[in-house]
Amino acid sequence: MTTPAKRRGRPRAYDPDAALAAARDCFWQAGYAATSLEDLAADMGMNRPSIYAAFGDKQALYRATVERYARSTGESVDRVLADPHPLRDTLHTLYRGARDFYLAGEDAPRGCFLIGTAITEARHDPRVREITEATFTGFTRAFTERFERAARDGELTDHPPAALAEIATATLHTLAVRARTGAPPAALDAIIDAAVDLICRP
Description:
Layout: H1 16-30, H2 37-44, H3 48-55, H4 58-81, H5 87-103, H6 113-121, H7 126-152, H8 161-180, H9 185-200
């Protein structure tokens, strides 16, 4: 008795990670509402039926890009804050890395994908609102844990770590907004220096 040969599945004609990255950049450029499926198809290198088959409709695709971005940024913040260097050095590393990321862009500074697009959509899409709020809350939680460690090590003495963590998260938001609206790097550096001095007490 012979065993039937396994049917080979149809090979994927696309890279899911590359397709989501292209979709994210397309939404990032114009925002959710102004981005058409034709725009997405052109940037992703996929036709509309293939997009629907792989990711669902436009809203489902957007949610997937938000989830992917949120996970990536959360991991980046956690990784930098886990650095064993002194708190002041760690904060400068994190904020300067964020500054460079927010200032990057083909035509103009791109800022933060969540602040640039998801803030608007969060009013209408509960899932986007949930992801965005969880991401920002995660930043504050990560800062709080790092500041609690700094307090135990004698680097912080004046204010509760949780309160300083709210300031630290707000600084990330401010850098993203100011970068997106065209603030020069020197202005962003001034914000970074002021925030780090406030948190670490020079």
